[in-house]
Specification:
218 residues, alpha/beta, TIM Barrel, binds pyridoxal-5'-phosphate, PLP-binding_barrel, pyridoxal phosphate binding, Pyridoxal phosphate homeostasis protein, PyrdxlP_homeostasis
Length: 218
């Protein structure tokens, strides 16, 4: 699908849900996509991108940011504490804050450098053992701890289990965000972004629908 088509679908879903048109940001997920494809999407005027790995983003985005103004890059994948400093330099927003140790490290680095990307707390809404994210029972406490650390937490993020109806997870995430006074909702991918918009997503993370299938990992 073209960017125009996806944006039109987002706008339609916003209208249907009585939300302001344009309320949802589209993050173009460029992980593992060839640079030429990413350059095409930049040339079309899109400026918000998502990546899964610090290393991959470090090889790609400093160069693109020199060529194109106003680019923002979001980290969507898990972050190891030993890469936190590099991640804070590279990314404008981090969607994968998921544990106390990482919160403490980000807080220390933010104090030291005087700046910090906006942060989403990742919630493991399906309580899947293999998946990252804060468990449901721990969300309220973790949000409070991050605020005590003066971290700029702007919202919650989830990746629903593949075999379940995502809307249930989106609704749950929205409820948790409201309860914690958080406005941001990072939810919805290529297969379900319209359902996420219907349930209040403030950003959707769309990869393959924009760029085509990702080359398999080597
Ligand atoms: C890869 C990825 C996406 C994009 O997935 P698509 O199905 O290609 O749209 C979104 N969010 C996260 C966290 C991802 O890792």
């Amino acid at each position: 699908m073209s960017l125009t088509e996806i944006t039109a679908k987002i706008h339609k879903a916003e209208e249907a849900a009585d939300r302001p048109v344009g309320a949802t940001d589209l993050i173009a997920v460029s992980k593992r996509q060839p640079d030429a494809r990413v350059a095409d999407v930049l040339a079309e005027g899109h400026r918000v991108f998502g990546e899964n790995q610090v290393q991959e983003a470090a090889g790609k985005w400093p160069g693109f940011k020199e060529q194109f103004d106003g680019v923002s890059v979001h980290l969507l994948g898990p972050l190891q504490t030993n890469k936190a400093r590099q991640a804070m330099e590279l990314f404008d927003v981090i969607h994968s804050l998921d544990r106390p140790k990482l919160a403490k490290t980000l807080s220390r680095l933010a104090q030291e450098t005087g700046s910090c990307p906006d942060l989403f707390i990742q919630v493991n809404t399906g309580e899947e053992p293999q998946k990252a994210g804060v468990l449901l029972a721990d969300v309220d406490g973790f949000v409070a701890d991050c605020r005590a650390l003066e971290l700029p937490v702007v919202g919650l993020m989830c990746i629903p289990p593949v075999d379940e109806e995502p809307s249930l997870h989106f609704a749950l995430l929205a409820k948790l965000a409201t309860r914690n006074g958080l406005a941001g909702l990072s939810m919805g991918m290529s297969g379900d972004f319209e359902r996420a918009v219907a349930l209040g997503a403030t950003c959707v993370r769309v990869g393959s629908a924009i760029f085509g299938e990702r080359p398999t990992q080597t």
